[in-house]
Amino acid sequence: QLQKDLEEVKELLTKATRKRLRDVLTAEKHKLELEIKNHPPPTPKDVVEEEKSSLGGYTVKINNYGWDQSDKFIKIYISLNGVQKLPAENVQVNFTERSFDLLVKNLNGKNYTMTFNNLLKPISVEGSSRKIKTDTVLVMCRKKREEKWECLTQVEKESKEKEKAAYDTSDPSEGLMNLLKKMYAEGDDEMKRTINKAWVESREKQSKGDIPMDI
C-alpha cells in the first residue's frame, strides 16, 4: 500500500509546477520512502502462513481421477463441478521431478487437495502445467523420456508385480491352481461348489485315462 502511495506522489511531482506544491510533495515522498525502508517485505515463511490462513473452509482430499498418456505427457483428469468459474490463481499445482501437489481454493466453500508422490518415472518440472476445463482440472506432467508408462506410481508397479508373481510360475497348471485356490478362498458357497465339482470331474477323467490316443 505504501509503495502505491509513493508511486502516486512521484507521478504528481512530475506534473506539479508551483514551488509550494512541489515542496509538500517532496516532503511526503521522503516520508513514504522512510516508512517503506522501516517496513521490510514479508519473508517467504510469512507468505506461506498467509496462504494457509487464507484457505479457511473445509478441505477435501481428492481420490478419484482418470488418466491417460501421449508420447510426451502423462495426463491426469480431476472432475470438480464449476472449477472453470474460479479465478486462475485459485487452482495451483506444484511439481517436483517425481511428484505433484494440486490445490483448488474456495470452490463452493471448500478447498480440494491431491498429492501424487513417487511417480513411476521422472518428469520435467518446467515442461509440466495444468489446464482448467469445464468441470475438470487437467494436470499435464511432461515426461523426461518419451516412453510408455505402465502405471502412474512406483507403488502401483510394485503392487502389480507382487500380484503377477503369485500366479506367474514356470508351470502353467501351478499358476491355474493358485488362481483356483484364491477364487475358492474368496468365493461364496455357490462358487465353492462349482470349483469342487470341476475339481472332482477333472480327477475322474485323469484316473480313467480319458485322453485321446493315436491308434
Automatic annotation (TrEMBL):
Residue ranges of domain CS in the record: 60-153
Keyword Protease: no
Keyword vocabulary terms for this entry: Acetylation, Cytoplasm, Nucleus, Phosphoprotein, Ubl conjugation pathway
Location, primary (coarse class): cytoplasm
SUPFAM superfamilies membership: Calcyclin-binding protein-like (SSF140106), HSP20-like chaperones (SSF49764)
Protein name per its UniProtKB record: Calcyclin-binding protein
Domain SGS, chain residue ranges per copy: 138-215
Alphabetized Gene3D superfamilies for the sequence: 2.60.40.790, UVR domain
Gene Ontology molecular function: S100 protein binding; tubulin binding; ubiquitin protein ligase binding
PANTHER family, A to Z: CALCYCLIN-BINDING PROTEIN, CALICYLIN BINDING PROTEIN
UniProt xrefs under CDD domains: p23_CacyBP
GO cellular component terms listed in the entry, alphabetical order: cytoplasm; nucleus
Described purpose of this protein according to its UniProt entry: May be involved in calcium-dependent ubiquitination and subsequent proteasomal degradation of target proteins. Probably serves as a molecular bridge in ubiquitin E3 complexes. Participates in the ubiquitin-mediated degradation of beta-catenin (CTNNB1).
GO annotation terms (biological process): heart development
Protein's cellular compartments: Cytoplasm; Nucleus
